[in-house]
Specification:
72% helix, mainly alpha, 278 residues
Length: 278
């Protein structure tokens, strides 16, 4: 049982779970718009998510303490290095234009973690995108939308149309909505400088925002020209689960409530397609 718990913690803390979630969203986009799933592209997303998330989460924790790290963090560092090497290998198989697209998303991720922004933007010293009050949640939503909708469209040489715009907006709304339980959970720990939504408007109003976002998620689906009755039902169920996730969130939630159950929504969403078809 202890070994199982250790494996589960590593699965969450090493960002494998969130990487599966992001890759699931790309797969959903491919199934929804009937284009072939590129395995190299999917592996790229999976490995890039692990590399990027672990870089953002652990850079500040590990940069000055390489010799005194806890064993679990050393294991994650080694795992992240292996993921990065795998990412380099897969990158060599990707078209150059796709690499350029991902390079833009990678640059935003880098600026999110590394304090390189001008000192004049902050009171005391250089900082990163995460430190800009209120910006964090929108940066993450933008990157997810780029990675699972915008870049795949160009990678697969598809002609952009209005449904792609609606899908990108839908993913943007989805990510903001499912980030709310994280922000509510982290109220006890986040610096007030972050200006998260719960810090600005309180928990009750944040949950009202979650209700509005779950409805907007569904409305965006209804506006598409290319959807099926099954897809509408899938999205209605996902919208309900988003709503439920936000309404059940609190400061006292276990870390695994958001990091596992809420983060698992794309995996569940994809399973609907795989089990019941389009």
């Amino acid at each position: 049982m202890h070994l199982l718990k250790s494996f589960f913690r590593f699965y969450i803390n090493s960002s494998v779970h969130v990487a599966l979630a992001v890759t699931s969203l790309y797969t959903i986009t491919a199934l929804e718009f009937d284009f072939n799933i590129d395995n190299n592209f999917a592996f790229f997303i999976f490995l890039a998510t692990i590399t990027g998330y672990n870089f953002v989460k652990y850079f500040g924790l590990a940069k000055f303490h390489h010799r005194s790290l806890e064993p679990w963090l050393k294991a994650i560092q080694l795992f992240s290095l292996m993921a990065f090497l795998g990412l380099v290998y897969v990158t060599l198989k990707m078209p150059i234009n796709t690499i350029y697209y991902f390079g833009g998303a990678g640059l935003v991720t880098f600026l999110y973690a590394i304090p390189m922004l001008p000192r004049k933007w902050f009171l005391h010293s250089n900082s990163n995108l995460r430190e800009i009050s209120g910006l964090k949640i929108y940066v993450i939503a933008m990157i997810w939308s780029l990675v699972v909708v915008v870049i795949p469209v160009f990678h697969h040489d598809l002609v952009w149309h209005s449904d792609f715009t609606l899908k990108a907006m839908q993913i943007f709304v989805y990510v903001i909505a499912v980030m709310l339980p994280f922000e509510i959970r982290d109220l006890n720990y986040d610096s007030l400088r972050l200006g998260t939504i719960p810090q600005r408007i309180g928990i009750a109003n944040t949950k009202r925002v979650g209700i509005a976002l779950s409805l907007l998620f569904l409305v965006l689906e209804l506006m598409k020209n290319t959807n099926t009755t099954k897809e509408l039902r899938f999205n209605a169920l996902v919208a309900f689960l988003i709503l439920l996730s936000v309404m059940k969130s609190s400061r006292e939630n276990s870390i695994y409530y958001s990091a596992f159950w809420v983060e698992a929504l794309p995996i569940f969403w994809l399973s609907l397609y795989l089990i019941f078809g389009k």
